[in-house]
Amino acid sequence: DFVLSSFGEMRALRLRECWGRLVMIVFVTILALPPIRTQKPTWDDATFDTTVERKNDWCPQMNAVSAGTLAMRDVMRGVKLSVSMPNPTTYTPKNFVNADAEGSVLLGKEAGFLAELLDELAKRAGFTWRESFALFDLPEDHGKTWTDLILWQVASYDMSGEWWVPTVQRQALGVTFLQGWYDSSLILVQKSAGKSIPSFSEKLVSWAGPLSPEVWAMCMVASLCVGAAYWTIENNQDGSDLDREDSSHNAGAACFYSLLLFTGGGGPAPRTFPGLLLLFGWSLFILVIINGYAANLVAFLVKRGPTLFPMVDIDDGNARGLPICVFTSAAPGALMKQIYPNLKVVPASGNNLLTKLDQGECAAAVLFRDGFEVQRSVKEYNLGCDKYKTGDTIFPNSAGWAIELDSGIKCTSIIQQVIDIYLVEMTLEGFIDEAKTRWRQLPSTTNHSCSKGAGAEEISETTPLNLQRFEGIFEILTLIIVVSLTWDQVSKRFFPKLDSDREDAAQAGVSEIDCIKSDDQATRHEELKQNLQKDQIIKLEARITAQDAKMVEALHDTHTALQDQQLEFRKAHLETMSMLRSFGANPPPPPLDEMSDRSPKVETPNGPSTSAMLGHPTDPSAVEITGLPWNMQLPKLF
Question: Which of 61, 102, 254, 263 could form a disulfide with 230 if both were Cys (CB 3.0 to 4.6 A apart)?
Fold first, then answer.
């Protein structure tokens, strides 16, 4: 607030009148900034100077512990531990120990991974080291090895502040190694040569990859066993899907049903309890196998083609005589010479292993695991994101600080137990892993990132599921098969009447159902027959009625025509008679009986009437026409 208000007031004042306030602002700003905490080395000792003697005398503490007057956890309390620390200006990787331009080691979390661990250890154990440490140079600068360096450090100081790989040679020279906190396992790193393309035959069988060949073979054997057991239990059972008289056909069908159940397209239909139990066990087995296959299938579908490398592993490279870069002046050189005495080694330092690999001087490089975790994310070492850990770990190991094996002169060996106690606690609490993660994530430590699977991840090939994964379900299936067959044989041998009664009851039930079905069918048939007869009768009556109507209409038309002819005939007869009379003739009239015989007559309910002159009757349904010349009679209408 003071600074802001001062700047606001300075706008209205001349610059020469504001010098006092400017000085005050600078002073306040300096006070507000956090102090840069550093610690200069206590001693400026020359590396490999054999006259240096900075060790404490730990014999009083050892005697007090032996006498029971001092607890082991309190041995180092109040002591200034003399430590030989790496020189930040020449040491790699970065941020292991940080210092300012004058070489003073920083304090707190900015001090670097190694210094942060020592600060935490000193806080827990009650000692100090910031007022009793010196910096060392790289041994290569003095024409020495790293083993020479550790021997000089443990002889001159209480503890070497560098991490050291335990070797038999160093232990034989009197060096004691403390609890490891740095993963110094030796791994093989290779440069990728691209991705391989699977062949046509590999593509054809790629679907079977999630399960190993022995699992597929055992599944086929299990399917045949289940089919045989199902055939033994259900063969010739009434109502079963194996009820044919041909046993060989039933056996084939049983095996086919057991295989078909794998696809979900169908399966057996047992009628007996042992058969149902067998079906349950087989379905459970298939459920486990299919789910395991599907879970591993995802990994096989998404995986890319295998990465091509010059060698499969270190053994393959050794057998083929391929050159391999090794940090020869440090522990890896001695270890690789001991493990692979005939290995074709290309000497290298810790800083140019991957550089020589890039330049093609070697086919692979041997690195520490934690060292590769950092270098693969550094641009100058892994710019193309093409470096991978391949094969198994060559030599598992962990590195840490070191002291001299001394139980009588300075009694330094006692601090090993004290430091190990607190290091184990720090490991269990996760402090070391957290500090290591912070160290790796610092931009100045790693300046390059690779996408997942592109040089930043270890090569992990998908692995088919083997028999060990399915041992339990195979055992359960075997047990269920045995129980089902035993149950079936016991029931058939000792309880045949019970089975016979069940079969008779089942058969009786089927017969009764068939009878009921027959009665129902007969009733329905009779009803259909009656309905059909009714329909036929109605259609026949309608047809007869139509035919009768047509016949009546035809007869009526014929009768009308005859009446018209008779009328014309009488007219002609009358004309003829008139003509004869006009000529003086007197013909006799036709007899009345003859005329009546030839003239049709209409009989009504009230009596007969002459129809020659009357025309058509008014109600054909109420009259009967008689006296037709051809002696025809009209049928009565309905």
Answer: 254
